[in-house]
């Protein structure tokens, strides 16, 4: 079970679920993107190091594909021993991101309920302490909180009427839109209940936990994200990340 952190009984016990069970189809290549190296270390190693390096996070539950055990062990070998201590045994992911998050939450439920859980994409290695701190405080205060950044493009709501052609239904006011990232921060019990309700009702395919929480009736707030906290999604993102991490010390 996660130990209560120093700093007084007010501090919530915070755990993180890192979802790393995707196939990385859009990046392509033989090795899933979370196991590719950027600046000499695997993306997943960097993500785990960033979270474990935060003294606000007591425990981390990795979620990996069952056929990726060997790749995962290689990531562990590259981690600082003090960081490794925070890692729970990985649990196997599911066919969708939502199923992988649920598997991680059930893993944490078995090893003692934290007060707060951060759900984070393995594919976002740029997460830093300042963003983690904002996630923890917004989640503790509001119960369900997701990081968002203002969008610079105008966004259209469309319906596809032919391949590559979408009929425009609506243009939402840009200043009201936020592009949402991870880490997303929730009180543990309500998020676990929301995921269990989705399983019970056969709802799958929520692409983020904010949307699942909304569906379950939890009020969700958006806090200030970080434009640098990009998700590695396309091959070019991997090249950019490699450049950004090269020449930068591992601990930074
Ligand atoms: N993820 C997961 N289990 C899944 C699908 C996704 O754990 N069944 C994780 C990915 O490993 C990633 C995060 O969710 O860290 C965000 O998903 P995404 O960027 O879509 O990654 P992939 O699904 O791996 O990539 P793609 O959609 O291009 O195949
Ligand atoms: Mg995906």
Describe the structure.
Helix 4 (97-110) crosses helix 6 and helix 6 packs across helix 7 (209-215). Strands 1, 4, 5, 6, 7, 10, 11 and 12 form an eight-stranded mixed β-sheet that branches. A two-stranded antiparallel ribbon has the order 2-3. The chain has a single domain (14-245), classed as Alpha-Beta Complex (Spore Coat Polysaccharide Biosynthesis Protein SpsA, Chain A). Strand 2 and strand 3 (41-42) form a beta hairpin. The mean pLDDT is 95. It is of the alpha/beta class and 252 residues long. The protein is built from eight helices and twelve strands. The chain has helices at residues 43-52, 69-77, 81-84, 97-110, 129-142, 188-200, 209-215, 235-245; strands at 14-20, 37-38, 41-42, 57-64, 91-92, 116-121, 144-150, 157-162, 165-170, 178-180, 184-187, 221-224. The chain is 33% helix and 23% strand. The structure holds cytidine-5'-triphosphate and magnesium ion. Residues 19-26, 34, 63, 93-97, 100, 121-123, 231, 233 line the site of cytidine-5'-triphosphate.
Feature tags:
single chain, alpha/beta, eight-stranded mixed β-sheet, two-stranded antiparallel sheet, 8 helices, 33% helix, globular, binds cytidine-5'-triphosphate
Helix content: 25-40%
Could you give a short account of the major beta sheet? 8 strands, mixed
Top CATH class = Alpha Beta
Radius of gyration: 18 Å
Number of helices: 8
Order of helices and strands: EEEHEHHEHEHEEEEEHHEH
Mean pLDDT: 95
Ligand names = cytidine-5'-triphosphate, magnesium ion
Shape label: globular
């Amino acid at each position: 079970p996660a130990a209560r952190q120093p700093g007084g009984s007010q501090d919530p016990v915070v755990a993180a679920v890192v979802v790393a069970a995707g196939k990385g189809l859009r990046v392509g290549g033989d090795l899933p993107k979370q196991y590719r190296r950027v600046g000499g270390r695997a993306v997943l190693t960097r993500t785990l190091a960033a979270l474990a390096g935060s003294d606000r996070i007591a425990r981390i539950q990795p979620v990996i594909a069952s056929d990726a055990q060997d790749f995962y062990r290689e990531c562990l070998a590259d981690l600082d021993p003090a960081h490794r201590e925070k890692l729970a045994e990985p649990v196997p992911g599911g066919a969708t991101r939502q199923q992988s998050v649920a598997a991680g939450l059930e893993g944490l439920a078995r090893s003692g309920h934290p007060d707060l859980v951060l759900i984070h994409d393995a594919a976002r290695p740029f997460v830093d302490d300042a963003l983690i701190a904002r996630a923890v405080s917004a989640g503790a205060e509001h119960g369900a909180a997701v990081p968002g950044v203002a969008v610079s493009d105008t966004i259209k709501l469309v319906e596809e009427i032919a391949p590559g052609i979408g009929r425009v239904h609506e243009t939402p006011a840009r200043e009201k839109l936020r592009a949402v990232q991870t880490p997303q921060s929730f009180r543990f019990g309500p998020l676990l209940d929301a995921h269990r309700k989705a399983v019970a009702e056969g709802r799958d395919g929520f692409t983020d936990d904010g949307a699942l929480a909304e569906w379950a009736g939890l009020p969700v707030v958006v806090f200030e994200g970080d434009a640098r906290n990009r998700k590695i999604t396309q091959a070019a993102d991997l090249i950019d990340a490699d450049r950004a991490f090269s020449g930068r010390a591992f601990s930074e």
